[in-house]
Design goal:
Blueprint (H helix, E strand, L loop, with lengths): L1 H27 L3 H8 L15 H7 L15 H13 L7 H7 L1 H8 L2 H8 L5 E7 L6 E4 L5 E3 L7 H5 L2 E6 L2 E7 L4 E7 L4 E3 L12 E5 L2 E10 L5 E11 L4 E5 L10 E5 L2 E5 L12 E5 L4 E5 L16 E5 L2 E6 L4 E6 L4 E7 L13 E5 L2 E7 L9 E6 L11 E3 L10 E8 L1
Helix pairs in contact: 5-6
Keywords: Kelch repeat, Repeat
Organism: Arabidopsis thaliana x Arabidopsis arenosa
Pfam families: Kelch_1
């Protein structure tokens, strides 16, 4: 009797469930497709310790959730999963992204889609990263703004001339642009953070070196410089152009009023500036020029560097912009100056804590990192120490003297001469 009751109860329960289902089928029928989709989806957890799949295996799964893009992802769960993955990975440090390329093809495609960096910009998650190439290095080093974390980039696969010669650097979006001279020509090497590789597939419209440059968002601007003339000699130019990291293309701009080499560039209050340098007769220039994108024209600014001391071989002006204020490291006097754009004059904010005058500005890094100024060089207070010191300050044109804070760089020892330095916002 007990056995038959136990058999009867499941059957009765099943009948009740069927009768209940008939009574409610009409009201719930609109939700059945979504219920079936969720019930039939089995989450997959990637084994981080497993070896990456072969290409043949990847082809079978390449259309899974992680390889979808916002344009071709269907409405529903796949699009939701894609957006969720992008949101999660956009909150990782950029120091971790190179690992995604090694994980498997799906995660590599997600990174290369650039959606992660787009979301970082939209969510205000962009952070500054300092890129340095110093004496004795064979590859670039990437630091966070506090110099607590770092990693080395791959070596540039170029020749002997490029490695040991002078190079110019700038960032555009997530691209690090390095321009220098190889044995036969001036070349452009581009490091892409998305793929963790150096690529050489584009050229400047007018290949040259020793120009003024500055970046804004995904664009980098270039003005002046030295090109190789038809007879093989150096030719100082006034041409200008810009590079866009989204399209990976170069576009010509209106030429400047002055030919100039060894000049510096910056973005100040929405305009690209080229400051100082030397003309085709090797005469130092105290004038500057500002570029208006709307009219594609340059405005000459006389005496913009009036009062600055020049001595051969002077480095290009060391300038940085913080909160729409232009600052200059006067390398002869070893002082920090701030520019009054309305009066066209410079005001002294005190002595900097590094020996910028030791080599007339060469070998010293002077950059803006967020709302701070960063300076790297031999410390004026550590005459016995040949190591490079890192200092930052929160500048303001309203204070009479700036307070500098030393930042420890325990993760790596910098070379005694900074050859190149720039800041990437990613």
């Amino acid at each position: 009797m007990q056995s038959s009751l136990s058999t009867f109860k499941p059957k009765m329960s099943l009948m009740l469930q069927k009768n209940q289902a008939r009574g409610t089928r009409a009201s719930l029928s609109q939700f059945e497709p979504r219920k079936l989709l969720i019930a039939s989806t089995k989450p997959t957890i990637t084994d981080l310790n497993a070896e990456p799949c072969s290409d043949s295996e990847e082809e079978e799964t390449v259309e899974n959730l992680t390889s979808l893009t916002p344009q071709d992802a269907h409405n529903g769960l796949p699009k939701l999963m894609f957006d969720l993955e992008v949101e999660i990975f956009s909150r990782l440090s950029c120091f971790q992204y190179w690992k995604l390329n090694l994980l498997n093809k799906q995660f590599s495609q997600l990174l290369q889609s650039r959606e992660i960096f787009k979301v970082r910009r939209e969510r205000g998650l962009v952070k500054p990263y300092v890129l340095i190439f110093s004496s004795g290095d064979t590859c670039w080093s990437m630091f966070d703004k506090g110099f607590k974390n770092f990693r080395q980039l791959p070596e540039i696969p170029s020749d002997f001339c490029f490695f040991y010669g002078d190079k110019e650097t700038i960032t555009a979006g997530t691209h690090l642009i390095v321009i220098g001279r190889e044995e036969k020509r001036i070349v452009v090497w581009r490091y892409e953070l998305e793929v963790n590789k150096w690529i050489n597939d584009t050229e400047m419209i007018t290949p040259r070196v020793m120009y003024a440059s500055a970046s804004r968002g995904t664009d980098a601007f270039f003005a002046g410089g030295i090109k190789t003339s038809e007879n093989g000699g150096p030719d100082v130019v006034n041409v200008a152009e810009r590079y866009n990291s989204d399209t990976k293309t170069w576009k010509a701009m209106k030429a400047m009023h002055k030919r100039r080499k060894f000049s510096s560039g910056c973005f100040l209050r929405g305009k690209f500036y080229a400051l100082g340098g030397r003309d085709e007769n090797d005469v130092y220039l105290t004038c500057g020029e500002s570029y208006d994108e709307l009219t594609d024209s340059w405005k000459l600014i006389p005496d913009m560097l009036k009062g600055m001391t020049f001595m051969n071989p002077q480095s290009p002006p060391l300038i940085a912009v913080v909160k729409d204020n232009l600052y200059l490291l006067e390398t002869w006097l070893n002082e920090l100056w701030v520019y009054d754009i309305n009066a066209n004059v410079w005001n002294n904010l005190g002595v900097v804590p590094v020996k910028a005058n030791a080599a007339l500005g060469w070998g010293v890094a002077f950059k803006s990192v967020g709302d701070r100024i960063l300076v790297i060089g031999a410390s004026v207070t550590k005459s016995w120490d040949n190591k490079m010191s890192v200092y930052t300050c929160f500048p303001s044109p309203k204070v009479e003297k700036i307070t500098w804070e030393e930042t420890s760089c325990d993760c790596v020892q910098l070379g005694h001469f900074i050859r190149n330095c720039c800041v990437m916002l990613a």
